[in-house]
């Protein structure tokens, strides 16, 4: 496999101005005729050939300007078609045969669950026709889809419908035209028998946009929330960024067979059905929130990604980091900002921090890749969004908006790099972002250590920050980053203290953003009457790990007094993590464990607080996961962490039994299900109480909660709690749940996942049995993620069994998937990425599995990239 490098990037020698596609779908083969209007670029080198990508295509015909080429006129080697000696401008026509009906990779044109559909990002278009399949080639598309009318009554492609009609033999066609130039990765087409839910949206300038949601007929009653979310997204982008939609129609197609979450194809989004379909009986509060977020995300791409696109794939974060930032802001405005921030940071810590500390660590703008699909990562997406957020923090909302306006003014219709975005922000605001740019080129999570010093005599308080950016593969001796530290100081009375820096004459504000960009830097505050407690990195103002020598008492103080809700939560998490990790050594030495009284009291105080947002209470009192705790240890002690965490949970359950019960009752509600923040918060806190209560009450009470649930949020919460219990009620509930929902594939994913993440003994054996269940399908990525993915990523204690059988399951799955769906295989293979963090015995077991995968015949390049990097 070849590695591609950012430093080798050159603009294309040939541009394709127009693309005319004719896609003739038959049951056992599909013919694609493409007519490309090509023009040589003025910068092209003398004699440069025209290069086109093609994968698994059977070339039937090839013509230039109406003349059929013979085999001496071109070469077709591997996945590249080379045409030498082309004129300045010409028309190229190719006809190829492809097989969507047997395409299990779910890239290019594929057939799944009765529908033909496409996924072209990043490099899927080359599986449909020969094309310079790179994002800096932008063209106008006209696409005609032909298929059997009875079987596939719905025929769609990007843009506007310009013609449709019947053909001989019961076939029909539809021609779509997209007036906006776009890169090939945004092409989409669909042929299927789908229900259509219609709505419309009137833009700020008064244009009416038709909204169309295409779903399976049986799912037609589950689109309401997605449609409302789309309308909210459209209005939000107009209000927040002055951005309107630009076509007369916006289509969304839902499929159960999809590699990723969703895809922003121009005017024709394709969605994983889990991010479209919902009603209270089948979807949880989290599902509803995710739908709103993903619908928003794909809609926002229309400007950040489609109108302004990428010049090459190394720049992926230009569209993804920015669009994640936009969807996070949208969700924050629709619900609770603090709760949204906490859940985003949880994701970052659970997925991105480990990635940044592992063999695949890369900057948000990677410098090389073997398989682009492997770089749709938490780093590019989530850390990328944090980088945009830091620019927002440094500039403030008004200057940030000016920067966005300038970015669109300069680059609308273009294919650009991350640099263009940073430059626009800099030019619009006058803020120098020179050092800040290191966030684009340096990988690794900076570790910031904070030392505190109070001088009672001078009333000076000094914070000294030290940063270390760890070495990552291919990068060492890094430069210090520019880090925004949003902070405040809190007095013993819980009141904020004015922040006057040394040398300032006027009294400072109560909160400020320090810019820390050296290896070590001190900030001295004057006029501080008594020693304060600092609240640092408020709202998680930078994607770093902070090390502050807070005592238990100080963390409890912050948990109860910090005016920043994010930091209250973070203090609670730090307190739990310190406590649990502090016990791991005692577990190893078989010592008796005990939980501190002040901690128990602090938990009780938070739990029974009568003015705090219930959602924040629930978040604060959710213990850090075993994975997250492991990540805080240099050498992960799987069994020690499990035992210590269970002990803390059991003890809190026992000691605060009455409170959990009282709050549980208080949160109960028999009214109809509503999706407002308050109701969501109430259900969340109720579920948390249930998890603690199940540790001390009989399984019958949990079963009753399950049986009496009237919505999926409560039902799944109870089922999840039951799934951990080694009791007959657990089996009984699983059986009832299956019987009730066996016709709904998305609900069955929850059934698989709940069993895969269970703490009960024998979970691995059950997962293996479930992989043989008639409702499991290795070809369906949602099923693979729900069962095998959930087990390997979300159940560390069982996955890391000492007999290596968990590892065997993962290796076997990767090898099977390698031949079916390489992109999902690669993703699964990354489950071994942290292998060096475990004890020697486990390291040996995982290494052997990695080697077994590496030695598989016909290993896909993406899987090769993951396992070979892991083995270095
Ligand atoms: N571009 C897509 C998204 O993130 C990824 N498939 O929305
Ligand atoms: Zn995206």
Automatic annotation (TrEMBL):
Domain Peptidase M1 alanyl aminopeptidase Ig-like fold: 444-545
InterPro entries reported for this sequence: Aminopeptidase_N-like_N, Aminopeptidase_N-like_N_sf, PepN_Ig-like_sf, Peptidase_M1, Peptidase_M1_dom, Peptidase_M1_pepN, Peptidase_M1_pepN_C, Peptidase_M1_pepN_C_sf
Claim: Protease is one of the keywords in the record: yes
Peptidase M1 alanyl aminopeptidase C-terminal domain mapped to chain residues: 553-871
Organism phylogeny: Bacteria, Pseudomonadati, Thermodesulfobacteriota, Desulfobacteria, Desulfobacterales
Gene3D superfamilies, per database record: 2.60.40.1840, 3.30.2010.30, Neutral Protease Domain 2, Peptidase M1, alanyl aminopeptidase, C-terminal domain, tricorn interacting facor f3 domain
Organism: Desulfoluna limicola
PANTHER family the record matches: PUROMYCIN-SENSITIVE AMINOPEPTIDASE (PTHR46322)
Domain Peptidase M1 membrane alanine aminopeptidase, first and last residues per copy: 226-436
Gene behind this protein: pepN
Example of a GO MF term: aminopeptidase activity
Enzyme Commission number(s) of this protein: 3.4.11.2
Name this polypeptide is given: Aminopeptidase N
The Aminopeptidase N-like N-terminal domain, residue ranges: 20-186
Family that this chain belongs to: Belongs to the peptidase M1 family.
SUPFAM superfamilies named in the record: Leukotriene A4 hydrolase N-terminal domain, Metalloproteases ('zincins'), catalytic domain
Keyword Protease: yes
Reactions catalysed according to its record: Release of an N-terminal amino acid, Xaa-|-Yaa- from a peptide, amide or arylamide. Xaa is preferably Ala, but may be most amino acids including Pro (slow action). When a terminal hydrophobic residue is followed by a prolyl residue, the two may be released as an intact Xaa-Pro dipeptide
Cofactor (UniProt): Zn(2+)
Keyword set, alphabetical order: Aminopeptidase, Hydrolase, Metal-binding, Metalloprotease, Protease, Zinc
């Amino acid at each position: 496999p070849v590695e591609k490098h950012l430093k080798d990037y050159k603009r294309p020698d040939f541009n394709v101005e127009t693309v005319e596609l004719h896609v003739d779908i038959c049951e056992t083969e599909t013919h694609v005729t493409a007519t490309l209007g090509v023009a040589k670029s003025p910068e092209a080198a003398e004699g440069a050939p025209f290069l086109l990508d093609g994968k698994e295509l059977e070339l039937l015909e090839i013509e230039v300007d109406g003349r059929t080429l013979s085999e001496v006129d071109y070469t077709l080697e591997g996945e590249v078609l080379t045409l030498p000696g082309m004129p300045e401008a010409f028309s190229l026509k190719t006809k190829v045969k492809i097989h969507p009906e047997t395409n299990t990779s779910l890239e290019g044109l594929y057939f799944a669950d009765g529908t033909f559909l496409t996924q072209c990002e990043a490099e899927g278009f080359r599986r449909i026709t020969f094309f310079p399949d790179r994002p800096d080639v932008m063209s106008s598309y006209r696409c005609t889809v032909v298929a059997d009318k009875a079987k596939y009554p719905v025929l769609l492609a990007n843009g506007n419908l310009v013609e449709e009609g019947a053909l001989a033999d019961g076939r029909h066609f539809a021609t779509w035209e997209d007036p906006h130039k776009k890169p090939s990765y945004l092409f989409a087409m669909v042929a299927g028998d789908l229900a259509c839910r219609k709505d419309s949206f009137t833009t700020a300038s008064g244009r009416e946009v038709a909204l169309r949601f295409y779903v399976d007929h049986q799912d037609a009653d589950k689109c309401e929330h997605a449609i409302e979310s789309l309308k909210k997204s459209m209005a939000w982008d107009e209000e927040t960024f002055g951005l309107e939609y630009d076509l007369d129609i916006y289509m969304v197609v839902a499929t159960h067979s999809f590699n990723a979450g969703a895809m922003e194809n121009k005017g024709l989004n394709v969605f994983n059905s889990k991010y479209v379909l919902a009603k209270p009986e089948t979807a949880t509060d989290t599902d509803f929130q995710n739908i709103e977020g993903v619908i928003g995300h794909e809609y926002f791409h229309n400007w950040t990604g489609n109108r302004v696109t990428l010049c090459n794939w190394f720049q992926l974060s230009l569209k993804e980091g920015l669009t994640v930032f936009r969807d996070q802001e949208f969700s924050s405005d629709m619900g609770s900002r603090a709760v949204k921030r906490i859940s985003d940071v949880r994701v970052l810590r659970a997925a991105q921090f480990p990635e940044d500390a592992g063999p695949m660590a890369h900057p948000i703008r990677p410098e090389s890749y073997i398989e682009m699909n492997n770089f749709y990562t938490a780093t590019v997406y989530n850390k990328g969004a944090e980088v945009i957020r830091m620019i927002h923090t440094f500039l403030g909302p008004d200057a940030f908006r000016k920067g966005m306006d300038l970015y669109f003014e300069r680059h609308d219709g273009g294919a650009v790099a991350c640099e263009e975005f940073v430059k626009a922000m800099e030019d619009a605001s006058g803020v120098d972002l020179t050092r800040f740019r290191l966030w684009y080129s340096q990988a690794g999570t900076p570790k910031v250590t904070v030392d505190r010093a109070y001088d009672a005599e001078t009333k000076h308080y000094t914070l000294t920050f030290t940063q270390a950016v760890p070495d990552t593969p291919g990068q060492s001796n890094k430069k210090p980053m520019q880090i925004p530290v949003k902070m405040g100081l809190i007095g013993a009375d819980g009141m904020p203290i004015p922040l006057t820096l040394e040398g300032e004459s006027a009294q400072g504000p109560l909160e400020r953003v320090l810019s820390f960009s050296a290896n070590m830097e001190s900030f001295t505050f004057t006029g501080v009457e008594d020693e304060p407690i600092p609240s640092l990195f408020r709202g998680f103002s930078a994607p770093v790990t902070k090390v502050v020598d807070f005592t238990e008492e100080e963390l409890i103080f912050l948990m109860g007094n910090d005016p920043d809700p994010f930091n209250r939560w973070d203090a609670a998490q730090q307190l739990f993590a310190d406590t649990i990790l502090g016990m791991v050594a005692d577990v190893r030495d078989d010592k008796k464990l005990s939980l501190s009284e002040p901690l128990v009291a602090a938990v009780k105080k938070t739990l029974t607080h009568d003015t705090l947002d219930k959602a924040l209470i629930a978040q604060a009192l959710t213990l850090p996961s075993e994975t997250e705790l492991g990540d805080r240890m240099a050498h992960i002690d799987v069994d020690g962490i499990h035992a210590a965490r269970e002990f803390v949970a059991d003890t809190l359950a026992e000691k605060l039994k009455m409170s959990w019960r009282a709050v549980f009752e208080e949160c109960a509600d028999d009214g109809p299900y509503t999706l407002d923040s308050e109701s969501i918060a109430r259900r969340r806190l109720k579920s948390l109480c249930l998890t603690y209560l199940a540790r001390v009450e009989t399984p019958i009470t949990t079963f009753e909660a399950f049986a009496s649930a009237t919505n999926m949020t409560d039902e799944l919460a109870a089922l999840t709690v039951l799934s951990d219990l080694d009791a007959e009620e657990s089996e009984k509930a699983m059986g009832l749940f299956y019987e009730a929902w066996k016709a709904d594939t998305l609900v069955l994913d929850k059934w698989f996942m709940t069993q895969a993440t269970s703490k009960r003994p024998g979970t691995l054996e059950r997962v293996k049995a479930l992989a043989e269940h008639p409702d499991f399908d290795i070809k369906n990525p949602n099923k693979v993620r729900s069962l095998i993915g959930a087990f390997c990523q979300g159940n560390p204690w069982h996955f890391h069994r000492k007999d290596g059988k968990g590892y065997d399951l993962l290796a076997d799955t990767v090898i099977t998937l390698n031949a079916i769906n390489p992109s999902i295989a690669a993703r699964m293979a990354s489950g071994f990425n942290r292998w060096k963090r475990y004890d020697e015995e486990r390291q040996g077991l995982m290494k052997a599995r990695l080697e077994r995968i590496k030695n598989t015949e016909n290993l896909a390049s993406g899987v090769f990239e993951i396992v070979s990097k892991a083995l270095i």
